[in-house]
Amino acid sequence: MNSLRQNRSRFQPCLVKFAAIRYGELLPRDHSGADSSKLDVLCAADQRNAIQQAVANCGALQYAKVNMKLIDLLSGDFFSQYVKTGNILMLSEGRPGVDNVFSLHDGNLRLEVNKPTYERAGLQGTPLPNEGRKHVKARFAIDINLRQPSMVRGHKGFERILWACRNVFDHSITWLFCDLRSMGAVQGPIMDFHPLVQSVEASIDQLDDAFLPGFAGQLDLSDEGDATEILEWITMANNLSPRLQRGDRIDKYLSRYAVPQGNGEPNNEDSREVGNLTRLRWRGLLPNHFVHKVLVAMLKASKETWFSASATSFSGENYTILKTDEQTYIWEYLD
Predict the structure, then answer these.
(1) Which Pfam families match (predicted)?
(2) Which element (helix H / strand E) includes 212?
């Protein structure tokens, strides 16, 4: 126990941002940002068929896992068809903030590297902020727009990049690849590298007899504690936790969790609303505009009923949207 208390100081608190917005503000025009590795959609079970049909209309999604060197991205048909004129998304293996990680999107190559690698590469970059964390090694970001007219062989700047790829970033790594122009198929020059193609489909699960928070009307989530309790319920429901079910008989010494009622209502088990929940889950490389299409489909299918959507990015950022009959709430988790 003493060692646990001593180690608590090593962990950084989680920063949660919360906002309530109008219905029309939910869909921004700019969908830039971190792409997702997981998407959970939660709704009432009686909306399952309508929502399942709506998300099916979003179309098929495929991505590929492939082993390539960084120099391969800047050579041959891959460079001319995908990078210069196409629109692909690629993410390399590695832990963000720890390992050297690379990404390519819309012709923009981003290299996030540690200080020794940055100094060896000899490319211009900017230091990444450590947000005041102690004992964090310096890291740098190198951003290169490969669609500039100067990014051609023979140009001094491009030859310097090729030199760094041959002498510093010279090892083969695993990438996730998605062609944003043909979401339903992996084809073209990528096939020369023998990719492992993955299809993304939603898995559907149900949680029966679950206690529900008070979604009727406009929730009063002006209090940070109430907003956090609703977020906790959504997270537990996404994980199909048995703690939410009416028949749960866990020992009170192990869990004293109670579903939040909100609006100052007493927490009486007999008066709490019970319903069946459906969860749709996607896992894989989920581009932002695919997540946006799912969200638009959910808004059209849900009509006056509630639903929530939770996304987790590869960089560890988390977002949750709760749409009720009158209001929309958004949570953003930042480590």
Answers:
(1) Ribonuc_P_40
(2) strand 203-212
Q: What tokens does 56 get?
A: 């099916």
The string of pLDDT tens digits covering residues 20-79 is 555 444 444 444 456 788 999 999 888 888 888 888 888 788 899 999 999 999 999 999
333 vs 320: CA distance, rounded Å? 9
Q: Can you give the length of the chain in residues?
A: 335
The string of DSSP letters for 86-150 reads S-EEEEESS-TTTS-EEEEETTEEEEEEEHHHHHHHT---EEPP-TT-TT---EEEEEEETTSTT
Pair of tokens at residue 228? 């956090």
Reported pTM: 0.81
Query: Which residues lie closer than 8 Å to 333 by C-beta, 6 or more apart?
Result: 14, 15, 16, 317, 318, 319, 320
d(CA 51, CA 280): 9
Spell out the domain ranges in the chain.
12-61+201-334, 70-171
Read off the tokens for 18. 């919360």
From the list 204, 328, 219, the residue with the least C-alpha distance to 276 is 204
73 is written with which tokens?
Answer: 């991205």
Helix axes of 48-56 and 288-302: crossing angle, nearest 10 degrees: 140
